[in-house]
Design goal:
elongated, two-stranded antiparallel ribbon, mainly beta, seven-stranded antiparallel sheet, 13 strands, single chain
Length: 235
């Protein structure tokens, strides 16, 4: 990991990091070899990429913020500080895809009992798409004094913020079907070897429609753009 940290200089602060990773081994977790052991097969003696092996990762955080009083250097209307105690924060995360094991023939992932298929290539030899996300937060701090006694007055702080995640509403792929490499189609409905089985269903079109609904799994995708307006109060 190579990182850069720009401490607060004027109004801006920034951190940036790049990570290059090669995570390989004979199993991604403690139970990876369990199937081989139970079937009497020999242990894996060749290393492969772990399921969490993300080759490239970028993280950039930029914070631009105005102070108040003598520390304020922004525009004013009379004595009113237009951007006093106001800041803008941007967070960017970019990462290459993690590996998965491709399949030669679709297995029907949406079925109750999926079929079996041979690997297409090597174990964890395929890669998911890159992911990119940019988040933004605009916030402003307010302070309030309360109490009648001047010597015992207390101060409360309120932060009002607008947070937008995934600003560009990018569709990030988290998981893919191993036979097609896509997040919304496992290839089963279009495979010629399953055509007769599909046609023998009670209602072929209904089967296809419901199957497609199940295949388009929302957990295969990252979150869409979300906008939140919130208030934090500390006293």
């Amino acid at each position: 990991t190579i990182s850069y940290d720009l401490r607060r200089t004027g109004n801006i602060r920034m951190t940036a990091a790049y990570t290059l990773q090669f995570a390989n081994g004979t199993g991604s977790d403690a139970t990876s070899a369990l199937g081989l052991v139970n079937s009497g097969e020999p242990n894996l003696k060749v290393i492969f990429p772990y399921s969490y092996d993300q080759r490239h990762g970028f993280n950039i955080v930029v914070d631009y913020r105005y102070g108040s009083g003598k520390d304020y250097n922004g525009p004013k209307i009379g004595n009113f500080e237009v951007f006093g105690n106001t800041g803008l924060n941007l967070v960017t995360n970019i990462g290459s895809g993690t590996p998965y094991s491709g399949l030669k023939i679709p297995v029907g992932d949406a079925l109750l009992t999926p079929n079996s298929s041979q690997l297409d290539g090597t174990l964890n030899g395929s890669r998911k798409p890159w992911q990119y996300r940019l988040d933004l937060q605009l916030d402003r701090n307010f302070s309030f004094e309360f109490g009648k006694d001047e010597d015992k007055k207390k101060v409360a702080y309120m932060n009002v913020y607008l947070r937008v995640t995934n600003i560009f509403n990018i569709i990030n792929t988290l998981n893919v079907y191993r036979a097609t490499g896509t997040p919304d189609d496992d290839g089963y409905l279009a495979a010629s070897q399953y055509e007769a089985s599909i046609q023998n269903q009670l209602d072929e079109q209904s089967f296809r429609d419901y199957y497609q609904l199940k295949v388009v799994n929302p957990y295969n995708f990252g979150i869409p753009r979300t906008i939140r307006l919130g208030v934090m109060f500390n006293f």
